[in-house]
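Progress note, project year one: complex with flavin-adenine dinucleotide.
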Amino acid sequence: MNNRYDVLIIGTGIAGLSLAIYLSELAPKLSIGLMSKGALPQCNTRLAQGGIAAVTNQVLDSFISHEHDTLKAGSGLCNPEIVHMAVHEAPTRVNDLVRWGVLFDANENGFHLNREGGHSANRIVHHKDFTGKEIHAKLAGKVRRCANVALLKDCFATELLLNDKGGIGLKFVRKGDAVERTAMAPRIALATGGSGQMFAYTTNHPFATADGLAMAMRAGARVEHLQYYQFHPTAMYQSRMGQVPLISEAVRGYGAHVVDGRGRRFLFDYDQRGELATRDVVTDAIYDHLSATGEPFAHIKVNHLDLADFKAEFPTITTRCQKMGIDLAGASIPVLPAAHYQCGGIQVDAWGMSSIDRVYALGECAGTGLHGANRLASNSLMEAVVFARRTAVHMLAQDFDHCTTASMEQAVPIHTAKLHRMISEKRRQLRAITTGAYRERNNRVAVQERLYAVNQLRGQVAKFGLPGYGAGGELTNLLWAGSGFIDALYQSFEPKEKHLLQGQTSHT
Ligand SMILES: Cc1cc2nc3c(=O)[nH]c(=O)nc-3n(C[C@H](O)[C@H](O)[C@H](O)COP(=O)(O)OP(=O)(O)OC[C@H]3O[C@@H](n4cnc5c(N)ncnc54)[C@H](O)[C@@H]3O)c2cc1C
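Model obtained:
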């Protein structure tokens, strides 16, 4: 395996794949290393159902309306310049996806546009209810045909390597190897996705373990808005913790009702928009209502809709319900909120550059300023492609002066069965602490107790000297993200200017 590239991209979700394609198109001679922890499709991107938000019909929709909806969802904490830029660039980026072969549903007016919670117009470009799968398949196919992209599959990135100029490479461990190696590049992009696995229930892929965020924090990068973790109000309830299936926002947009055990549409008690309120509002309403009624879950009901049309529109959800023995004509779907999207992350500028020179971040691991306190539905796939293009342009405007540091190899500890048991137990404890902190996020004392608990847990785990890759590395990274999340929650009881955290200073 070559260990020197012009650009190293970590992550093969929509952010990493788009960046590789843009770079390849703009500079076909550039050598690009594209790393993923497992196989290419193992990521959150493949799970995206709803689609991409973009103003593609300027008669029935407008940029100003998309901007307004984004700012409103973000509760005054979005960066308005970034919102303006992303909303205006989104339609061109959607056209890039089409140019790369992605098929979106269409009608006689152009794209078939869905509507989702918080949007005041139909503007969600989609491929049935498996948009992410379609995008990923087409982008992965295209990347495989890029002659200047080397795919580095099954490689777990563990740490960034820096010198006085900034990022120069990273350390990684290949699956099946007990050796940590280095890969060098004068430009590095972290596109490692989110951190949903730190919570009890999450819609996220098992790989969403905050690896890039934690690596950047350890290297001293600035992070922002970590306290703003978005829960999805309607994931399919199941008793086992971990990844749970999502019932897309588009289902509520399509006319499904959220009801309690007595069949009552209780969301209007909390917000006049009912099912179409933003995710944080619906999530809190469900949690509050369940606390009041003592019921274990809420329900989504669709039997008042045309079921043939519904099944054609939502084949993935229909199939999943069939597998679970849920008859959509009679029974309702049991749902509960689940951790869904990390709104903040590694702080970047309008070109994807982090506070560490030569280290970029994009996709869910980045804090671009687009989402503020709450992401508007379907703005994340859009953000990933918008920033992929900008990152590519910015990278190519710089000199590619390679560092001469020699590559290194170092033996690393292996995971024994005993270590695996300890890791599972500590991960369970972390999930309980972070989920409790989220549910009680408005209670300063409760948050402070959770902060103490997570730091205690970090201290206990640190004594084990865990391997930096695989399950050990993931637990360490989740602990960084978990304590960053709760620390930021705690800081947010202080005046607003304390919201920006310096990873290095807060997490020594
Ligand atoms: C169920 C679900 C539905 C969603 N629906 C929508 C939607 O309709 N519209 C929308 O806009 N957004 C949606 N989202 C959010 C959106 O899918 C994600 O925010 C987006 O796909 C993130 O893309 P990404 O490229 O940043 O990360 P990912 O797609 O998660 O990719 C992360 C990549 O990083 C790699 N990686 C991670 N750690 C390491 C490491 N240590 N070493 C090497 N590689 C590593 C992984 O292997 C993976 O390739 C949804 C999310 C979920 C979970």
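Residues 413-506 form one domain.
The radius of gyration is 22 Å.
No further modelling is planned for this target in the current period.
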